[in-house]
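Contributing new records

If you add data, match the layout below exactly. Sequence lines come first and carry their own label; structure lines follow with theirs. Keep one chain per record. Anything else will be rejected by the validation script.
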Amino acid sequence: MKVLEPIIEIKNLNKSFGDNHVLRDFSMTVYPGENLAILGKSGSGKSVLIKCIINLIEIDSGQMIVLGKDLSELDQDELDEMRAEVGFLFQSNALYDSMTVRENLEFPLRRHWSNEEREKGSEAAVLEALNDVGLSHTIDMMPAELSGGMRKRIALARALILKPKVILYDEPTTGLDPITSREISQLMLKVQEKYNATALIISHDMHCIKMTSNRVIMLIDGKRYADDTYENLQLAKDPKIKEFFD
């Protein structure tokens, strides 16, 4: 039986902001094709963790290995190459208000594709990404013309356009109504099936985690408190785990 190489491997990660110890000896492994959810209360360090993975926040100590590369050993060019293989869906969507949907999706291509690649493939890449999220008709619209759920889908399309090996979802359903949240969760499953991409899902939305995750890590007091399937955690007697499900 072939042993799968981890897509993300974190060993004894520590991160503090002054006296606030956000992550304490946190370790985890994410395997290819897996949807792994990180569950924790607001302010528990979930978003800090996801930003450490793409080196937006520098860690205090520990080891971060992403796609087989130790982040501490990468120079800026190598870090940019690694980031091109990681799609990031920001909690705020982070769309450029002054750009059309088309221009928002072309933005990663301008950074990571050559002029020749863009001339040959930009239009097809934009249309495929928009078709993936069911919004090809919005291509020339501005973000202000879109609903909250549509903006989330466009942000996901932008995260998908480079066909990343890993997708990081930072609170993908926050601020959305229950029906739209369910649609986004279903879309995340569709993406997993089509691209066989590995996903790390940061959330405290229990419905989203139940729908989308293969495995759940509970982040409590800065540590990996529990690591199991949603169904098994739901049956746990531990009061710190139970309060998430009550």
